[in-house]
Task: inverse folding
């Protein structure tokens, strides 16, 4: 049974006689451990109707490109095959997702959807709720603890958020039961997923596919490797980009190709001491980012920063910068700092930057830009363009952290004011920074 706190009606429509229960899949792109899907099956079984699943493929999705589409499409193909085994048809249609969902919703007796957190995702769901004749229900499938249960306001930091979410953890850190479909469609009745090849889509092709393959099976492979080979070294090695101890699961979480509950349960089941450190990142920090975008309307802009951070940066806005780089120079990794350049190249080439270097990367953009506002825009642009896990709550919160969000004032210094400072000497004290730079050398 899906916990009732995950379930929210989006309109006040009365039940209607329809042909099927529709699950409009958008943010949770998986067939396994998916509360929205299982709630759809439960409701369909109760009225002896089949379940249909639709997905709207938006080629104009904000800041998406060939890299993000290639990764997503790999996952959607796998999801379609998994649904087919259960007798659930999966329809992928190009077009604005709210139009695709509304079209399928016309013949539905109920529309269920997963939850999105960014403003345009919320707007899509509101449009569908207003357009279709039947009830529309959202089921939160992207976090462990439902957002409003964890906190009813924007949290200042992990220190204020942590005790609130940990109090709720055991209630929600449980797997969702996969239900048998009572009215499965026969194989010849189930439409193919119809997931197009990325070459067929008219999307920005300037960013090629990265080095990660998409899909739930691939996510679970990474999870298995992490639990069996990397987790034991995670606590001591996670801030060293030369040590391969990270889970590499953030791209899969971004597209909902794996459940955060599944990850947390697998990591906790190892019984390793390092599990606690990982779950701090995977649950507390990740869901703090969701809290940020849920309650802060300026989550994707400089104005969304805390007042103290904006004030201290304004106080130092006219400080002399030793280096100032254009957006193009940053994008091409052409600065004086070989470590920063290596981090930028890692992101451009692979689609993912090591987490510790991502903090350093953002801090230096602040240091090397004419204004803090310019720096904020540049960091968001680069992160969203090249990171497979960009354009999501973690990405927005991560950039904001570099400018003081979820942090406290530190010792005042030039340019940064009271914002936490990082420099190359700090990298060298933690790991072999020169070795890291050699891993991603400049193009010749």
Result:
């Amino acid at each position: 049974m899906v916990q009732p706190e995950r379930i929210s009606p989006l309109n006040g429509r009365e039940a209607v006689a329809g042909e099927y229960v529709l699950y409009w899949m958008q943010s949770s792109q998986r067939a396994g451990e998916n509360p929205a899907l299982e709630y759809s099956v439960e409701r369909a079984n109760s009225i002896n109707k089949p379940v249909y699943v639709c997905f709207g493929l938006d080629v104009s999705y904000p800041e998406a490109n060939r890299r993000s589409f290639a990764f997503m499409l790999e996952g959607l193909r796998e999801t379609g095959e998994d649904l087919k085994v259960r007798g659930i048809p999966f329809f992928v249609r190009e077009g604005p997702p709210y139009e695709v969902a509304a079209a399928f919703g016309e013949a539905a007796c109920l529309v269920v959807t997963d939850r999105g957190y960014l403003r345009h995702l919320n707007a899509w769901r509101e449009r569908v709720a207003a357009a279709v004749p039947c009830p529309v229900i959202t089921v939160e499938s992207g976090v462990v603890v439902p957002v409003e249960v964890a906190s009813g306001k924007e949290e200042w930091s992990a220190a204020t958020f942590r005790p609130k979410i940990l109090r709720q953890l055991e209630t929600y850190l449980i797997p969702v039961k996969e239900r048998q479909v009572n009215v499965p469609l026969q194989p010849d009745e189930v439409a193919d997923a119809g997931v197009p090849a990325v070459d067929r889509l008219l999307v920005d092709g300037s960013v090629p596919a990265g080095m990660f393959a998409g899909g739930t099976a691939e996510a679970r492979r990474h999870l298995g490797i992490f639990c069996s080979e990397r987790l034991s070294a995670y606590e001591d090695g996670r801030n060293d980009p030369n040590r391969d101890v990270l889970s590499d699961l953030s791209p899969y979480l971004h597209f909902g190709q794996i459940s955060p509950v599944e990850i947390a349960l697998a990591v906790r089941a190892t019984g390793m001491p390092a599990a606690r450190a990982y779950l701090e990142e995977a649950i507390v920090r990740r869901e703090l980012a969701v809290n940020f975008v849920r309650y802060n309307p300026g989550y994707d802009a400089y104005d969304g920063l805390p007042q103290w951070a904006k004030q201290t940066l304004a106080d130092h806005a006219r400080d002399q910068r030793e280096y100032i780089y254009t957006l193009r120079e940053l994008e091409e990794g052409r600065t004086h700092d070989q470590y920063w350049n290596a981090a930028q190249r890692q992101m451009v080439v692979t689609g993912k930057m090591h987490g510790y270097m991502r903090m350093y990367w953002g801090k230096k953009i602040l240091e090397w830009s004419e204004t803090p506002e310019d720096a904020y825009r540049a960091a968001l642009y680069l992160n969203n363009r090249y990171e497979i896990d960009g354009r999501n709550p973690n990405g927005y919160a991560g950039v904001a952290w570099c400018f003081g969000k979820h942090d406290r004032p530190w010792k005042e210094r030039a340019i940064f004011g009271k914002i936490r400072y990082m420099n190359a000497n700090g990298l060298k004290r933690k790991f072999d920074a020169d070795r890291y730079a050699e891993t991603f050398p400049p193009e010749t």
In short: Strands lie at 7-9, 20-24, 51-57, 90-94, 108-114, 136-139.
